Structures are given as structure tokens and as C-alpha cells.
From TrEMBL:
SMART domains attached to this UniProt entry: AAA
Superkingdom of the source species: Bacteria
Record-annotated ABC transporter domain positions: 347-583
Membrane topology recorded in Swiss-Prot or TrEMBL: Multi-pass membrane protein
Organism annotation: Methylococcus capsulatus
GN (gene name): msbA
Record-given protein name: ATP-dependent lipid A-core flippase
Keywords assigned: ATP-binding, Cell membrane, Lipid transport, Membrane, Nucleotide-binding, Translocase, Transmembrane, Transmembrane helix, Transport
Entry-linked Gene3D superfamilies: ABC transporter type 1, transmembrane domain (1.20.1560.10), P-loop containing nucleotide triphosphate hydrolases (3.40.50.300)
Transmembrane segments: 28-50, 171-190, 254-277
Length: 601
């Protein structure tokens, strides 16, 4: 799996990911610079707090000068105000960079989702993708924001305090030579473990949202098939795993922090021991010693925070890694240069094949088919014979594995995707409605442009006007997720109205009237036939009665077209079509069906 591969990525690739994340911050470099300056100012002010201890102690207790106390307290307030302003600016500005980076990342992910090919979605989980958009982006930004604030602010604080200590007493400062490497090693250990844990947490976050999303989408099935316990158990497993992994992360963090604290305290203890030696004690004043120890103590919390920043950054790197992996996936190919205004609508398939997956055979196998502009071709055949797959190739929802498809003589790959898809209206086998009003569903994305009258007209032609007018708010009724408040046949008529309104030269109807009762179907069929007159139409139907008038009927089997002709020709040929016909209309044999058919004519 991808995750285990990324776990073993070397540190350099972690750096590369972080650099790429930083690039998202570049456009906001002004806020970023203000934040950095404020952080450095904050860090520069801190050592003065420690330094003030020296005059405080030496001045008041040794030189016995009470005015020093007053001066020191005023200076304390002044320093605090300055540090407060610097702290606010650094948090605010870096926060604003962080939030804008999240928004930008989400925009890029969404844009990528719009542009990924259908084949990507065949193997993707919506929940996992959502979790990337919502959870991973937050992790990334937290890592950028906190990571940078802490690194700069606490890093400079530590440097400032160290400088003060060296200034106060160079000899004692040698303690860092011992402490430095020990601290470095423990931080490194914690950091590696963190990245691994973070990746696992992201993965389980994705699964939690995946299970949740499925239950939301399929809640009726869950209810009817008594799947509550099953789903609850599935959720509990993922939820539990997520929680346990989070706890491991927390434990590592807390333990890491504790160990680093201990190491630092050991440093203080070491210094106290050195100072206890008589020879050393005589060389420093009490105030100087106190300032030195205060500086050391003040370093504890920045060092601890610096050690924790590693975890935040590792989380960001892990999250960024999975986001970038998705952003780097190839998009739908759109290299065409030709932009067709309005096609006449002639279509030609030349030896077209489609293999979805190498493990299975071809869903479309060497199909050649010519459809003159304005004609209607019907595709019939058993379930799974490749009818839907064949028509999906036309708007390039999938790319043909071999062969070529031409519209008006242009290879469809030479057309821009936008102009290709502008030529095609499509009613799919599964109706897709958006959680929006009836009107917006019919005029998908173009309500402002076409106006309500056109929407009404399309609804009328699709035999949908009657039922729409009985809805509580008519065209303004919200249809719910996937049109849940409508009946199957109502949904289908809205989808047909949507296709009619698009008024494209090529019409694809994949089982478009399968959910309608006989009367509605006849009515919609009449409307469709009017519409088909000056359009190239590809109709797929199981109910053969609906396609008898097609200019050409093609029978598919196992991805191939096994015969083509008009209804009469195919009946006379007594092949696959005549078989299907006989079966559907309940004749006991093909000859009987052919005979009855001949009499009818
Ligand atoms: N997205 C996909 N990924 C992999 N295989 C697919 C995909 N869609 C369809 N198939 C396979 O391709 C074959 C043809 O499917 P297709 O949907 O084209 O059949 P169909 O003729 O439209 O059937 P039906 O009448 O049931 O709608 C089937 O074996 C199916 O399993
Ligand atoms: Mg189909």
C-alpha cells in the first residue's frame, strides 16, 4: 500500500514535502515577514527578563539600593508590553497565513477532484477523499503555522538565552556541549515515531469518515437489511483504532517532552554542582549566578516546545505527503485544440475497445459503428454486454483503450473536453440529482442563463410538469440528497428534462425511461421522438418496444456488436435480436415471433 511505502521515505523527502508546503505560504510573504520579525522581537526581549534579575539581586541585597527595585519593576512592565505586542503580531499574522494556506490547499484538492478521471473514482473512497480535504489540510496548516512560530520564536529565544549565559559565564556554558547531542538524539527518535503514527492516524481518520459516509448514503439499505449492528461494529473498530493510535501519539509526545525536560533539568543540576565547588563560587556574584540559572530555567519551556514542534511538523509532512500524492495524480487528458461550436452530429466508432481493468476482459471489444448525423441508433443486449461502456466513451468519461471515435470527422481526442461535452446530452442509467431545487436540477449550472420558462418547457416535454406542480414549492422544491424525496420515475423525468434543456446535437439515453409506467413512458417517448428528429441519438433499452423505430438497432454481446439493422431486417435475419424479441414478448420460438411480426406489418 501507499502508506507503508511513505513510512520508509528518507528524511530528505520529508524536507522536500515541507518545502512544497512552504510554497503554499509564499504568496502571503508579507504577513509571513511581519510574523517572523515579531517572533524575533519576542525572542530578543525574553533574555532581558533574566538579565533584570542581576541588578535586582546585586542592587537591592548587596548594594542596598531600593530605587533599583522600582526601576526594575517599571522595566518589567515595559518589557511585558513589548513582548505582548510582538506575541500578538506573530500569532495573528502567522495564523492568517495558516488559514489562507488551508483555503488554498482545499481549493487545489477540490479542483483536482473535479478534474480526475472517472477511472480514479472507480477505486477511490469518497470518505477518504473528504478526510483529506477536511482533516489533512488542517494538519498541514497547523504544522506550518505552529511549526514556524515555534521554530523561529522559541529557537531565537533559546539562542538569546544562551548568548546571555555565555556573556554571564562562559565556563558554565560549556554544559551545552554535553546536553546538545543528547537532546538532539532524543528529538530524532521522537520525530521518526511521530511521522509513522501520524500516517496511520490519517489513514484511520479516512476510514472513519468512509464508514460514516456509506451509512449516510445507504441508510435505507442499512435499515431494511438490519445492518445497524454490522455498521456499528465496523464503525467501532475504526473509531477504536483511531483513538488508540491517537493515544500512542499523545504518549510519545508526553514522554518525549518529559525526557527532554529531564535532560534539561540535569543540566541545571550539573551547573549547580559546578558552582558548589569553592573555586568557581568565588568568581561570580550572586546576582550573576541567579541570572544564569534564571536563563537556564527559562530555556526549559522553549526547549520543550521545540521538541514538540517536531511532532507537529511530522504530522504536517505526513498529511502533506498524502495530499500531494493525490494532487500529483494525472488528470483527465485534455490536449485537444479544436473547439467545435455546434457539431452536426455524425459519429463513427473505429475498432474501439475498452479494457477497464487488465484482470478482466474487454468491456468493449473492437466495435466499429457509423451513425450519420440526425439518425437514431439503438443498442440492445444482455446485461453486462457493454452497452453503457460503449456510450460512455463518447463524452470521454473513459478513454478508449484502442481505436478511435470521430464526431463530424474529428477524433474526439482532438476536441477540447469542454467543446466535446457541450455537444452531448446524457441521461445515465443511474439518475443523479443534486441536493438543490427542481429548477436548478433541470437547468444544472445554467439557471441564470436559460430562465425559468425554458425549464418549464423542458419539464413539460419530459412529462414532468404535472408532478412538479403538485410539489409543495413547485420548481423551488428541494429534492434532497440524490433526489430522495422524489419517486424513481419522477427522478428519471427530471433527468430527461435536464437533457432536453441542454439542447445538444447528440443525445445519449441509457435506459432513460426504464423506471416509468407504461403510460408515462409512451408520453415521454413521444416527446423524445420529436426531439430525436434533428439529433443524433444513441438509445439503450431493455424494453425492445421503445426502440423499434430506431434507424438502426445494434445487438451487443460480450462487448461486441454481433448484428445491426432495422427492426424488420433483424427479425428477418432470425439472429440475436429475434431471440431477444421472442423472449421478451413471450413467443415460444423465434419463428413464431417472426411470423407474428410479419402479420402485424
Ligand atoms: N467502472 C467499471 N470498472 C470496471 N469494470 C466495469 C466498470 N463498468 C462496467 N464494468 C464491466 O464492464 C462490463 C460491461 O458493463 P456495462 O455497464 O457496459 O454493461 P451494460 O451492457 O450497460 O449492462 P446493463 O444492461 O446491465 O446496464 C461488465 O462486465 C461490467 O462488470
Ligand atoms: Mg448499462
Amino acid at each position: 500500500m501507499k502508506h507503508s511505502a511513505s513510512e520508509s521515505k528518507p528524511l530528505s523527502s520529508g524536507l522536500a514535502i515541507y518545502r512544497r508546503l512552504l510554497r503554499y505560504g509564499f504568496p502571503y510573504w508579507r504577513s509571513f515577514c511581519v510574523a517572523v520579525v515579531a517572533m524575533i522581537a519576542y525572542a530578543a526581549i525574553t533574555p532581558f527578563f533574566a538579565k533584570l534579575i542581576q541588578p535586582l539581586i546585586d542592587g537591592s541585597f548587596i548594594d542596598n539600593d531600593p530605587t533599583v527595585l522600582r526601576q526594575v519593576s517599571l522595566m518589567l512592565i515595559g518589557l511585558s508590553v513589548l513582548r505582548g505586542i510582538a506575541g500578538f503580531l506573530s500569532e495573528y499574522c502567522s495564523g492568517s497565513v495558516g488559514r489562507r494556506v488551508i483555503a488554498d490547499l482545499r481549493r487545489d484538492i477540490f479542483d483536482q477532484l473535479l478534474n480526475l478521471p472517472c477511472s480514479f473514482y472507480d477505486n477511490a473512497s469518497g470518505g477518504q477523499l473528504l478526510s483529506k480535504l477536511l482533516y489533512n489540510t488542517e494538519q498541514v496548516s497547523a504544522s506550518l503555522q505552529q511549526g514556524i512560530i515555534t521554530c523561529i520564536r522559541e529557537g531565537f529565544t533559546v539562542i538569546g538565552l544562551m548568548a546571555l549565559m555565555v556573556y554571564q559565564n562562559p565556563v558554565l556554558s560549556l554544559v551545552f556541549l554535553v546536553l546538545g547531542p543528547v537532546l538532539g538524539l532524543s528529538v530524532r527518535f521522537v520525530s521518526k515515531r511521530f511521522r509513522r503514527l501520524s500516517m496511520r492516524i490519517q489513514e484511520s481518520m479516512g476510514k472513519v469518515s468512509h464508514v460514516t459516509q456509506e451509512v449516510i448514503d445507504a441508510q435505507r439499505i442499512v435499515k431494511v437489511f438490519n445492518g445497524k449492528a454490522y455498521e456499528a461494529a465496523k464503525f467501532a473498530t475504526e473509531n477504536d483504532r483511531n483513538q488508540k493510535r491517537q493515544m500512542k501519539l499523545i504518549a510519545t509526545d508526553a514522554l518525549g517532552g518529559g525526557v527532554i525536560h529531564l535532560i534539561s533539568v540535569a543540566g541545571v543540576a550539573g551547573i549547580l554542582y559546578v558552582v558548589s565547588l569553592d573555586s568557581v563560587r568565588q568568581t561570580i556574584t550572586p546576582g550573576s549566578l541567579m541570572a544564569f540559572i534564571a536563563a537556564m530555567a527559562m530555556m526549559l519551556s522553549p526547549i520543550r516546545r521545540l521538541s514538540q514542534v517536531v511532532s507537529v511538523m511530522q504530522r504536517g509532512i505526513a498529511a502533506g505527503d498524502s495530499i500531494f500524492a493525490m494532487l500529483d495524480l494525472p488528470r483527465e487528458r485534455d490536449r485537444g485544440r479544436i473547439s467545435l461550436k455546434r457539431a452536426r452530429g455524425s459519429i463513427e466508432y473505429r475498432h474501439v475497445s475498452l479494457v477497464y481493468d487488465d484482470r478482466h476482459g474487454a468491456a468493449v471489444d473492437d466495435v466499429s459503428l457509423v451513425i450519420p448525423a440526425g439518425k437514431t441508433v439503438a443498442l440492445v443486449g444482455q446485461s453486462g454486454s457493454g452497452k453503457t461502456s460503449l456510450v460512455r466513451l463518447l463524452p470521454r468519461l473513459y478513454e478508449a483503450t484502442a481505436g478511435e471515435i470521430l464526431i463530424d470527422g474529428h477524433d474526439i481526442r482532438e476536441l477540447t473536453l469542454e467543446s466535446l461535452r457541450r455537444q452531448i446530452a446524457y441521461v445515465g442509467q443511474e439518475v443523479t440529482l443534486f441536493n438543490d431545487t427542481v429548477a436548478s436540477n433541470i437547468a444544472y449550472g445554467c439557471l441564470d442563463r436559460v430562465g425559468l420558462d425554458a425549464v418549464r418547457e423542458a419539464a413539460r416535454a419530459a412529462n414532468a410538469l404535472d408532478f412538479i406542480e403538485t410539489l409543495p414549492q413547485g420548481f423551488d422544491t428541494l429534492v434532497g440528497q440524490q433526489g430522495i424525496v422524489l419517486s424513481g420515475g419522477q427522478r428519471q423525468r427530471i433527468a430527461i428534462a435536464r437533457a432536453l434543456l441542454k439542447n445538444a446535437p447528440i443525445l445519449i439515453l441509457d435506459e432513460a425511461t426504464s423506471a416509468l409506467d407504461a403510460e408515462s413512458e409512451r408520453y415521454v417517448q413521444q416527446a423524445l421522438e420529436v426531439l430525436m428528429q434533428n439529433r443524433t441519438t444513441l438509445v439503450i433499452a431493455h424494453r425492445l418496444s421503445t426502440i423499434q423505430n430506431a434507424d438502426q438497432i445494434c445487438v451487443m454481446r460480450g462487448g461486441r456488436i454481433i448484428e445491426c439493422g432495422t427492426h424488420a431486417q433483424l427479425m428477418a435475419a432470425r439472429g440475436g435480436y429475434a431471440d431477444l424479441y421472442a423472449m421478451q414478448f413471450g413467443y415460444s420460438s423465434v419463428p413464431e415471433a417472426v411470423a407474428v411480426h410479419a402479420v402485424r406489418r
